[in-house]
Amino acid sequence: MKKSTKIVFLFLLVLTFLAGCSGSPPSSSTGGAAASPSATSATPRASATVTAATPVSTAQTAFRVTSVQMAVSPASIAGQSCGTELTVTYTATFHVVPDQGTHTVQFAYTTNNGRSQQFASLQFLPGQATKTFSFSWHGALPLDHTAPGLGGVLVTSPNQLISTPVKPAGLCTPAPFHVTSVTMSVNPGTIAGLHCGTNLKVTYTATFHIAPGSLGGIIKFGYTVDNGRSGGDNTQTLVVGPGATTQTYSFTWSGVLPADHTFPEPGGVLVSSPNVVRSPLVGPSGQCS
Questions:
Q1: What are the helix (H) ranges across 1-97?
Q2: N or C: which end of the chain has fewer CB within 10 A?
Q3: CATH number of the CATH domain containing 256
Q4: Which residues form the signal peptide (predicted)?
């Protein structure tokens, strides 16, 4: 019994010793009890938001013509007399999508709404977005108002584009009908070398010059073949059409070339309507022999 008591006592002593050496359980314990957090625990990692970068396009914008604006000068011909000489200037402004290259724009232009055309080109430098081109029409303003016509351009390269055509507004006003002058010619121009007594026919031609742009009318005049002594008693009329600027009339003298050289004499005309105009008098030069 005494021996058994000793054995139990020693067993209890060993248990007491082991309990005193055990202390607090280590933090890394994987036992059933939960581990206490360490005072020197690591700082939590910072979170980062990742944004995908927008891809940068390396493709170059294609060079092209986006529009063509047209202007015209003068803007109106209202109040101008028909027949007036006039220059009309058309200006095209080309708008393009520029890039870093040098490009050529090819086009045709017209001043008569496309019935005829001319060809031209413009060079655009890097970054240049606009450029202008001017062309013109010149002529007398017609009574039928067919000119100046519509002017514009047709782009053919690098792309196709048609501008809106423009022309001066308004219409010309018909000019008053009147004769501005009369010029004379004679055939033959000389009788030198002809024998006196020769039968001869001399033709006088009067050219009437009329103000341009009129609606036409009637010219009344008389002519003479005796240096004006008859005073232009041979009254005649000429009908002039709309827009005509010249009209001719011929008359003659026939006879034998006299030895006293009194014939043929200078001839001419005297206009009495629509206004008064006297022509110069002309006759063949030289004398018969």
A1: 2-22
A2: N
A3: 2.60.40
A4: 1-19
Please say whether the beta carbons of 204 and 186 come within 8 A. Answer: yes
Instruction: Reduce the DSSP state of residue 40 to 3 states and report it.
Output: coil
Task: Tell me the two tokens of residue 83.
Answer: 């027949």
The percentage of residues in the chain with a pLDDT greater than 70, rounded to a whole number, is 78
pLDDT tens-digit series, residues 216-245: 999 999 999 999 887 666 789 999 999 999
Phi, psi of 22 (to 5 degrees): -70, -35
pLDDT at residue 61 in the model: 75
Torsion angle, alpha carbons of 201, 202, 203, 204, to 10:
-160
- In this structure, the chain runs to a length of 289
Q: Indicate the average pLDDT of the chain.
A: 85
Does residue 31 lie in a domain region? no
Contact 269, 249 (CB under 8 A): yes
| Cα–Cα dist 40/20, whole Å | 27
pTM: 0.63
Residue 44 inside a domain? The answer is: no
Q: State the average pLDDT over residues 27-47.
A: 40
Selected residue with higher pLDDT from 19 and 265:
265
Q: Is residue 259 part of a domain?
A: yes
Full strand arrangement of the beta sheet holding 85-97: 64-73, 85-97, 130-140
Do residue 144 and residue 204 come from a single domain? no
Q: Which residues contact 135 (CB under 8 A, 6 or more apart)?
A: 89, 90, 92, 109, 111, 118, 120, 151
Domain of residue 193 covers 179-278
Q: Are 97 and 155 contained in the same domain?
A: yes
DSSP state for residue 215 in the 8-state scheme? -
Phi, psi of 36 (to 5 degrees): -75, 140
